[in-house]
Amino acid sequence: MSYGAWILLTGCLVGITCGITGAILVLRKMAMLADAISHTVLLGIVGAFFVTQSLNGLPMLIGAAVVGLLTALFVQLLDSSGVQSDAAIGVVFTSLFALGVVLISFVGDSVHLDVQHALMGEIAFIPWETFELNGMNMGPKAVWLLGAVLFINVALIMLFYKEIKLTTFDPQYAALIGIPIMFIHYLLMGMVSLSTVASFDAVGAILVVAMLIVPGATAYLLTDRFIVMLLLSGFIGVLSAVLGYFSAVLFNVSIAGAMACATGVLFFFALFLSPKYGFLTKKLRNKMLKT
Amino acid sequence: MNALTVDNLSVTYDKSPVLQRVGFEIPEGSLTGIIGPNGAGKSTLLKSVLHLIPRLTGDIKVYGKPYKEQRNLIGYVPQRSEVDWDFPTNALDIVLMGRYGHIGLFRRPKKKEISLAKEALKKVGMEDYANRQISQLSGGQQQRVFLARALVQDAQIYFMDEPFAGVDAATEKAIMNLMQQWKYEGKTVLVVHHDLQTVEDYFDHVLLLNKTPVSYGPTQQVFTMENLERTYGGAISFIGKSAQVIQERG
C-alpha cells in the first residue's frame, strides 16, 4: 500500500473507533471527562515507557487504561466529597497531565516522545513506524493498534449493549434492577482510554477530542435511534477522516488538523440542515406552515 | 404477611437529617399513599428504601428477607423529570427496559419480551405510540410509558414517586386502573402523593410522614384532621378545601 493509503486507513480507523465510543459519551453528558482522559493518558504512556524502555503497543495500552481509569476514579472521588464536578475534572485532568509533561522531559532524545508530538500527533509519520512479524513487514503499528482497539470496543458494546443503553438513559432504574452501573461506567472509561492511546500517535491529545465528541454530537442531531446514532457517529468519523485527508493534500496543510476541522464542518451542516433539528429546516417548515 | 418492613431508617444530607428513625410495616395487597408536606422526605424515603441513596441506619426487608435478595420483586415508577427524554429511542424500547432484569446479561429482548411490552403499552392506552420518539410524547404519555415499563417488570411491590403530578385525565385513569389491577392481583403498591383531596379515593392505607412517621394505618382511621395537623404543623391552613371535606365527613 502507498503511504497515502496507510495514512487514510489510519485516519478512518481513528474516526470509526472514536466515533462509536464517543457517541455514548455525548449521550451520557461526559464529553469533558473524555477531554480529561485524552490528556491524562499521556502520563500512562510515559509511565509505560519508563517501565519497559520502549514505545510498544501493549504496555502503552495498559498504562493508558490504568491512568484513564484512575482519572475517572479521582474525578468520582472528588465529586462525591463535595467538589463541583467540573472543577473536579479540571483539577484531576491538569495535575495528571502536568505530571506526564514533567516526566516526559526525562525521556532522552533517542525516542520519539515529546510534548509537541503528544499534543498534536503526526499522522504523516505513521507509515514509517511499521512492525515486523517473522521478518515480514506487517504495515504500520498504529493500524494494528487501532484495529485491535476497534475490535475490543465493538465487542464490549455488543456484549453490554442493553446495559450501556439503560445506564445511559436511566441510571437509577438500572441500579434498581441490579445492573452494576459503576462497572459499566468504568468499562466505558476504559474504552475511552484505549481509543485515545491508539489514536495518540496519529492525531494527538487535543485533536482526538474532536474525533471523540464531534461525530457523536453530529449523529445526535440526525437520528432518533440509539444504535443508529452509534453507527452513524462511526460513519461520520470515517467521513471526516476522508474529507480531512484529501483537503489536507489539496491545500498542503496538517492532515490531523484538517480531519478535525472536517468533523466541525460536518457538525455545522447537520446543525443547519438536519431533517428534525436543523435551523434552516425548522425555518423552512415554519414558512411552509404559514403559507 | 408484611410485604415490606422498614426498621430504624435514617437518612442525612450534609449532616442535616432528612429522615429520622423511620419504621413501619406494609401489609401485602395494600395500596398505601405516602403523604406529607414539602421537604418531609417522601421521595427520600422511597429512594432510600430502594437502595438508590445511602442510608445512615436502617434495615429493609421485603417479604421477610433482606432487600438485596428480593430485588426482582421490586417495581419502580420514578418521577418523570429524573431522566432526559431527548435520549434517542422510542416508547416501546423504554418499556422493554422493564424486562432487562429478567433477560439477564449478554442476551437481547426476544419476541416474547416485545409482545409483553406491546401488551403493556396497550393497557395504558399507548399502543399507537410504540414507535414514537420519546421526546415527542406529552408529559402524561411519558408517565404512561414509565407505567408500562413497571408493568412488564411483573413485580410484587410497586413504588411510584408522584405519578399523578401534572398529568392529564387519561393518564390519571390509567394509573388508577393499574393500581386497582395490582391490588386485585395481591400486589402491594406504595405511592408518594401530594394531593390531599384524592387520598381517600386512591388509597386504602396512608403513611403520614414529616421526617419521621406521624401515623400509619387504614385510611379511614389515619387520615384525620388531627393527624394532618400534626403532620403539616403550621402549614395546615394551606390545605384549605380538603381539610373542610374531612371535617364535613367527620
TrEMBL record, chain A:
<feature type="transmembrane region" description="Helical">
    <location>
        <begin position="202"/>
        <end position="222"/>
    </location>
</feature>
<feature type="transmembrane region" description="Helical">
    <location>
        <begin position="57"/>
        <end position="75"/>
    </location>
</feature>
<feature type="transmembrane region" description="Helical">
    <location>
        <begin position="6"/>
        <end position="26"/>
    </location>
</feature>
<feature type="transmembrane region" description="Helical">
    <location>
        <begin position="142"/>
        <end position="161"/>
    </location>
</feature>
<dbReference type="InterPro" id="IPR037294">
    <property type="entry name" value="ABC_BtuC-like"/>
</dbReference>
<keyword id="KW-0472">Membrane</keyword>
<feature type="transmembrane region" description="Helical">
    <location>
        <begin position="173"/>
        <end position="196"/>
    </location>
</feature>
<feature type="transmembrane region" description="Helical">
    <location>
        <begin position="229"/>
        <end position="248"/>
    </location>
</feature>
<feature type="transmembrane region" description="Helical">
    <location>
        <begin position="87"/>
        <end position="107"/>
    </location>
</feature>
<dbReference type="GO" id="GO:0055085">
    <property type="term" value="P:transmembrane transport"/>
</dbReference>
<dbReference type="GO" id="GO:0010043">
    <property type="term" value="P:response to zinc ion"/>
</dbReference>
<feature type="transmembrane region" description="Helical">
    <location>
        <begin position="254"/>
        <end position="273"/>
    </location>
</feature>
<keyword id="KW-0812">Transmembrane</keyword>
<feature type="transmembrane region" description="Helical">
    <location>
        <begin position="33"/>
        <end position="51"/>
    </location>
</feature>
<keyword id="KW-1003">Cell membrane</keyword>
<dbReference type="InterPro" id="IPR001626">
    <property type="entry name" value="ABC_TroCD"/>
</dbReference>
<keyword id="KW-1133">Transmembrane helix</keyword>
<dbReference type="GO" id="GO:0043190">
    <property type="term" value="C:ATP-binding cassette (ABC) transporter complex"/>
</dbReference>
<comment type="similarity">
    <text>Belongs to the ABC-3 integral membrane protein family.</text>
</comment>
<keyword id="KW-0813">Transport</keyword>
<protein>
    <submittedName>
        <fullName>Manganese/zinc/iron transport system permease protein</fullName>
    </submittedName>
</protein>
<dbReference type="Pfam" id="PF00950">
    <property type="entry name" value="ABC-3"/>
</dbReference>
UniProtKB/TrEMBL annotation, chain B:
<dbReference type="InterPro" id="IPR050153">
    <property type="entry name" value="Metal_Ion_Import_ABC"/>
</dbReference>
<dbReference type="Pfam" id="PF00005">
    <property type="entry name" value="ABC_tran"/>
</dbReference>
<comment type="similarity">
    <text>Belongs to the ABC transporter superfamily.</text>
</comment>
<dbReference type="GO" id="GO:0016887">
    <property type="term" value="F:ATP hydrolysis activity"/>
</dbReference>
<dbReference type="InterPro" id="IPR027417">
    <property type="entry name" value="P-loop_NTPase"/>
</dbReference>
<dbReference type="InterPro" id="IPR003593">
    <property type="entry name" value="AAA+_ATPase"/>
</dbReference>
<keyword id="KW-0547">Nucleotide-binding</keyword>
<dbReference type="GO" id="GO:0005524">
    <property type="term" value="F:ATP binding"/>
</dbReference>
<keyword id="KW-0813">Transport</keyword>
<protein>
    <submittedName>
        <fullName>Manganese/zinc/iron transport system ATP-binding protein</fullName>
    </submittedName>
</protein>
<feature type="domain" description="ABC transporter">
    <location>
        <begin position="4"/>
        <end position="236"/>
    </location>
</feature>
<keyword id="KW-0067">ATP-binding</keyword>
<dbReference type="InterPro" id="IPR003439">
    <property type="entry name" value="ABC_transporter-like_ATP-bd"/>
</dbReference>
<dbReference type="InterPro" id="IPR017871">
    <property type="entry name" value="ABC_transporter-like_CS"/>
</dbReference>
